[in-house]
Structure formats: structure tokens, C-alpha cells
Specification:
With 280 residues, the chain is α/β, with parallel strands linked by helices. Helix content is 51%, strand content 19%. The chain has an eight-stranded mixed β-barrel, surrounded by five helices. α3 (86-108) runs parallel beside α5. The radius of gyration is 21 Å and the shape is globular. It starts with a helix and ends in an 8-residue tail after the last helix. It binds ligand C2E and magnesium ion (MG) (3 copies). GO terms for molecular function: cyclic-guanylate-specific phosphodiesterase activity.
Length: 280
């Protein structure tokens, strides 16, 4: 009987594995189609300068509408990475975002920041592809930041691609800082310009903030300053968190408190309302 039950469990397991695999295959097929059918597009979230309270840049975030529904990036990006589709999707996303941001940069001096995956960094033609997109869209290299998560950055630190991007004036940001396995001793060796403090450090600030949480954030900001990195706090959701980060001298902030990711038309409206200022 025990053997039979085990067999049934195995059958159920196989079945759910098969269901998962076919769902993954369906997603991959949909993503391949999204490259050309317009269902892939970008949302933009303001990056705000704490000194002035106005936006100075935007982070481009990929969106995919499948049928009537938005699929979260947390679901489709990993599948795009596993299937290698992230290369083509990432290039498409970068082109869409640069084309959009070229106007915003011209009119309001704002910068664009775009997320990049490990697969893209491993492509020896990546720098050339980025430069071609900049040339085609008219966005200056100095107005572009590429965001790379901490663990990927450590893997890629010894590849020439980061150096060649930076040599052309493109800045590199460490995304989700504090969630990877980097040793602090490594930070000075990483070819980066901007440090984005992970949401988990910001979200923990209660009202009133606990002293140990405040010292932790202060320490990360001090670390960034000591390494000449521009700090950005991610995931600022409350007025209390916003005030705290301003008091701690965090130069740039991002989060629902300032604005959720929105479509390009909504950013146009914000710009008409003069919510943006020239980039620092
Ligand atoms: P990320 O780059 O760290 O982006 C920040 C995420 O936090 C975004 O989620 C954003 O919508 C969300 N967020 C912003 N402010 C707040 C806040 O105040 N509270 C909370 N709870 N969340 C906030 P999203 O758009 O779902 O993207 C998730 C992740 O997917 C991104 O994390 C990034 O790692 C990846 N991703 C998104 N677009 C792209 C892309 O074009 N290429 C690549 N390779 N990855 C992307
Ligand atoms: Mg990011
Ligand atoms: Mg992040
Ligand atoms: Mg991330």
C-alpha cells in the first residue's frame, strides 16, 4: 500500500511538473510574440531629488500585457532569462525607453535608468548595441544609467563590458544593494557610479523609526559617500520614510510615496505640471 501511495504521489508530482513546464513554454511563446506585437511596453517611475523635491530621472520598468492582463516582471523576467529571450526583450525595452526619454531629456534634462540582466552583459556585442540605440534615438550617453543587481555585478565585474560602457559615459548602478552576497571590501573594486539601497532597508522604517534601523540606513549612506557613489533609496512608501531619508542626506529617492510606475503619457503630464527639474 505504501508503495502504491508513493506511486500516486510521484504521478501527481510528474503531472504538476508537466503543467508547470507547459505553462513556461506558453509564456516563452507569448514573450517571443511580444517582441513584435506591441504587448511589451514600458512604465516609468520618477526618481526624485530630495533637496528640491522634484523628479530628476525615471526608471524604465518592463510591462507585458498577455490577453487582458498585465503579467508581473517577477513572473516573466525569470522565464525570459531561462530561455535566453531576455537578450532580445532587453534590447527592445532599451530602445523603447531611450526613444521616449530622448524627448524628456531634451525638454527637462532628465536621465533614464534601465535594468539589465546577466545574459545581456555576457553578450560581447552589448556595448555596441547600446551605443547604436543611443545614436538612433538621440539620447546622450551621459543621460543613461544601466542597473545591475548586486550578485550579477560581482559575476560581471571582471568582464570588459562594464568598463567599455563607462568609457562611453554611460553610468552603472548597483540595484537592490544589500541583498547580494558582496563583501564590503569588494565595493571599491566594482566599476559603478550609483548605489540603489534595496527596498527591504527602507520599508523597515516605522513611524517613529527605530534607532537601529536608522543607524543601518545611515551606515549604508555613509558607505556610498565614502566610495563616491550616488545613493538612491528604493521603495519609499510613507511621508515618514521620505522625511527620514531627507534628514539623513540621501540625495535621491524612489517609491510609491513620490509616484508609482506609470505610462509615458502620464510622465508627459507630470512634466507639463513642472514636477521635473534638470538632472543633477
Ligand atoms: P527593480 O529594478 O528593483 O525595480 C523596482 C521594483 O519595485 C519595481 O517592480 C517597482 O514597480 C517596485 N516599486 C517601486 N516603488 C515601490 C514602492 O514604494 N513599494 C513597493 N512595494 N514596490 C515599489 P516591478 O516593476 O514589478 O519590477 C520588478 C523587477 O523586475 C525589477 O526590480 C527588475 O529587477 C525587474 N525588471 C523590470 N523591468 C526590467 C527590464 O526591463 N529588464 C530587466 N532585466 N529586468 C527588469
Ligand atoms: Mg531597478
Ligand atoms: Mg531595485
Ligand atoms: Mg531588482
Amino acid at each position: 500500500a505504501a508503495k502504491q501511495a508513493g506511486g500516486a504521489r510521484t504521478a501527481r508530482f510528474d503531472e504538476s511538473l508537466r503543467a508547470e513546464q507547459s505553462e513556461r513554454a506558453r509564456t516563452a511563446a507569448g514573450l517571443r510574440q511580444a517582441l513584435t506585437d506591441g504587448s511589451l511596453f514600458m512604465h516609468y517611475q520618477p526618481v526624485v531629488d530630495t533637496a528640491s523635491g522634484r523628479a530628476t530621472g525615471v526608471e524604465a520598468l518592463m510591462r507585458w500585457r498577455r490577453g487582458g492582463e498585465l503579467v508581473p516582471p517577477g513572473v516573466f523576467i525569470p522565464i525570459a532569462e531561462q530561455t535566453g529571450l531576455i537578450g532580445a526583450l532587453g534590447t527592445r525595452a532599451l530602445r523603447l525607453a531611450c526613444a521616449q526619454a530622448a524627448t524628456w531629456h531634451r525638454e527637462h534634462g532628465l536621465y533614464l535608468t534601465v535594468n539589465v540582466s546577466t545574459h545581456q552583459l555576457r553578450d560581447p556585442g552589448f556595448t555596441a548595441a547600446v551605443l547604436e540605440i543611443l545614436a538612433d534615438t538621440g539620447l546622450p550617453a551621459a543621460a543613461l544609467v544601466l542597473e545591475i543587481t548586486e550578485s550579477v555585478l560581482i559575476d560581471a565585474a571582471d568582464t570588459p563590458v562594464l568598463g567599455s560602457l563607462r568609457a562611453h559615459g554611460i553610468r552603472i548602478a548597483i540595484d537592490d544593494f544589500g541583498t547580494g552576497y558582496s563583501s564590503l571590501a569588494y565595493l571599491h573594486a566594482l566599476p559603478v557610479d550609483i548605489l540603489k539601497i534595496d527596498q527591504s532597508f527602507i520599508r523597515r522604517h516605522e513611524d517613529p523609526p527605530r534607532p537601529q534601523d536608522v543607524s543601518l540606513t545611515r551606515a549604508i549612506l555613509e558607505l556610498a559617500r565614502s566610495q563616491d557613489l550616488l545613493a538612491v533609496a528604493e521603495g519609499v512608501e510613507t511621508a515618514g520614510q521620505a522625511e527620514l531619508l531627507r534628514d539623513l542626506g540621501c540625495p535621491l529617492v524612489q517609491g510609491y510615496h513620490y509616484g508609482r510606475p506609470v505610462d509615458a503619457a502620464a510622465i508627459d503630464t507630470l512634466m507639463r505640471e513642472d514636477a521635473f527639474q534638470p538632472a543633477a
